[in-house]
Design a protein that fits this description.
Layout (H helix, E strand, L loop, with lengths): L15 E12 L2 E12 L3 E5 L6 H8 L7 E6 L2 E3 L4 H6 L2 E4 L11 H6 L5 E2 L2 E2 L1 H14 L15 H13 L5 E5 L7 H16 L3 E5 L3 H7 L2 E6 L2 E7 L5 H9 L16 E11 L5 E11 L3 E6 L5 H9 L6 E6 L2 E2 L5 H7 L1 E4 L3 H5 L6 H6 L17 H15 L15 H14 L4 E5 L7 H16 L3 E6 L2 H7 L2 E6 L2 E7 L5 H8 L4
Parallel strand pairs: 3-10, 3-11, 6-9, 9-10, 15-20, 15-21, 18-19, 19-20
Antiparallel strand pairs: 1-2, 1-4, 4-5, 7-8, 11-12, 13-14, 13-16, 16-17, 21-22
Helix pairs in contact: 13-14
């Protein structure tokens, strides 16, 4: 395995807390990391960036003891260490907050924070002390939630803050944050940045992975760039620029996206007065009405908790609505459950890729064809599965979506986040839908993979599909959508054609009104 990269400059070894030398990780048919020398600087925010598949998460898994290297060594404070489990890493003061949530929805917030790290007194868990400590940690994150609250009652952004609280509960010297803001609102991001500054003052070293370049430039002290499983270069953030970062990330694979409106046809989806109530009172959806045409791309913009995910789940039949109507090609979908709505032409790519989009124990191929097995795709006339047709369709979808995979039989977990997202998109397209609902389709994926998703959305519209997508990124909805619906407090607060959209209008409409 060869490597070409910018040499790491000589540094005072006392500045370096973690160093890898010649670190490699090989999976069947895939070299995830190729002979990487990498340094983490003490009491700094060490930003690590690269496209999906660059090797960032693989490196972090090895530093956190989740994976073991195929070759090479890891040094902590200049001494070689063997990190064969997360417990080994935690004994050395290394904790990780994973990109995909690693929590237990059936347990309460407090138990999630202290799972496998319980505080005992006289042989019993000291629940009173754990409750007070959990409350203190949540207050630091400005999360006004009782620690006894069932986790499943929290939205994904608040669950992310619980994941962060769990990491803070340990005696951590090095904290790895893999896409920690991907599900957070702007106000929650500010809170997280304040916590990071507090941790630095307490002597905690941060490794921070994100695809949001503006975040990296604001919060980072030192930046390292990986590409195709190799170390490429490093700099102080103060010496870096966004154009330089992009150039180092993509090399000669630079991508761009140009908006090209598709020809629009008849109305395919019509929503009238859709309303859904919280069990505790208040609205998940409040009198939502709009229509969607063939070839049209609608962007849904709003802050965390605005009702975007609830809208998609209501449309697909995963959440009950107390009133309102949904018409697909003129047919009323009243009391029609999720599987029937798939058959009629609705498809959803969920926000929570790991929890709702893929089955981690299954292969790439099985994940991709899962939605279509009971529909019209891969069965003989006598209802048996046709493996040849299944394989051919999977290979064609992999080619169409440019999924980086050597063998569709590999586990879905062997893929990077961006390629997993493409598999989830492929699964939706396998059902031959007429309306595609994409809930935060670019959350946690890199610039290159985002551009691939943008092109795919445009391609679907040009082929006559009706597309709706939600996004927390202003620039994204403004670049992709023919029309933007803004949501706040479960209501549509603005319906703007592309030519009438401004950032100021979107921000104003997304702010909940008392």
């Amino acid at each position: 395995m060869s490597q070409t990269y910018t040499e790491i400059p000589d540094k005072n070894e006392s500045e370096v807390i973690i160093e890898t030398r010649g670190l490699s990780r090989v999976y069947p048919g895939v070299v995830a990391l190729d002979n990487v020398d990498y340094r983490v600087y003490r009491n700094k925010v060490n930003v690590l960036i690269g496209e999906n598949g660059a090797g960032k998460s693989t490196m972090m898994k090895m530093l956190a003891g989740v994976e073991t290297p195929s070759s090479g060594q890891i040094f902590l404070d200049g001494e070689p260490v063997l990190l064969s489990s997360t417990h080994d890493a935690e004994k050395h003061g290394i904790s990780i907050i994973f990109q995909e949530l690693n929590l237990f929805p059936n347990m309460n917030v407090m138990d999630n924070i202290f799972i496998a790290n319980e505080i005992f007194q006289k042989g019993k868990i000291n629940e009173k002390y754990q409750y007070e400590l959990a409350k203190s940690l949540l207050e630091r994150l400005e999360l006004n939630v009782d620690p006894s609250t069932p986790l499943e009652e929290l939205g994904i952004g608040h669950q992310q803050l619980v994941e962060i609280a769990r990491a803070l509960s340990k005696d951590t010297r090095v904290l790895i944050m893999d896409e920690p803001t991907s599900a957070l609102s702007q106000s929650e991001v500010r809170i997280l940045f304040n916590v990071i500054e507090q941790l630095k003052r307490r002597g905690v070293t941060i490794i921070y992975i994100s695809h949001r370049l503006e975040e990296l430039m604001e919060i980072g002290d030192h930046i390292t760039i990986f590409r195709d499983g190799r170390f490429i270069s490093e700099r102080n953030v103060s010496d870096a620029s966004v154009p330089w970062i992009i150039e180092q990330m993509v090399g000669d694979k630079k991508k761009h996206f140009d908006y090209q409106p598709a020809q629009q046809g008849n109305t395919v989806l019509e929503i009238n007065g859709l309303t859904a109530l919280h069990q505790s009172g208040g609205y998940k959806l409040n009198d939502v009405s709009f229509s969607l045409k063939k070839g049209e791309v609608i962007g849904i913009y709003g802050l965390l908790g605005a009702g975007r995910t609830e809208l998609f789940k209501g449309l697909i039949g995963l959440m009950p609505c107390q009133s309102g109507s949904i018409y697909l090609n003129g047919e009323h979908l009243e009391n029609i459950h999720f599987q029937s709505r798939l058959k009629k032409g609705l498809a959803l790519v969920p926000e929570d890729r790991q929890g709702e989009g893929v089955v981690q124990m299954m292969s790439i191929k099985s994940n991709m064809t899962l939605s279509d097995l009971s529909l019209k795709g891969f069965r003989h006339a006598w209802k048996w599965l046709n493996p040849q047709k299944e394989q051919a369709n999977v290979e064609e979808m992999i080619k169409q979506l440019a999924i980086k995979v050597s063998d569709p039989e590999l586990p879905i977990t062997s893929l990077s986040g961006g390629n997993q997202q493409k598999v989830v998109l492929g699964k939706a397209l396998m059902t031959k839908p007429e309306v595609v609902l994409l809930d935060e389709p670019t959350r946690g994926i890199d610039i290159g993979a985002k551009t691939d998703v943008y092109h795919l959305i445009g391609k679907m519209a040009r082929e006559g599909l009706a597309v709706m997508f939600s996004s927390s990124e202003l620039d994204e909805v403004m670049a992709l959508a023919d029309r933007i619906l803004v949501m706040a407090d479960g209501r549509i607060t603005a319906d703007l054609p592309r030519h009438a959209v401004t950032r100021e209008k979107l921000i104003a409409a997304s702010t909940p009104q008392d």
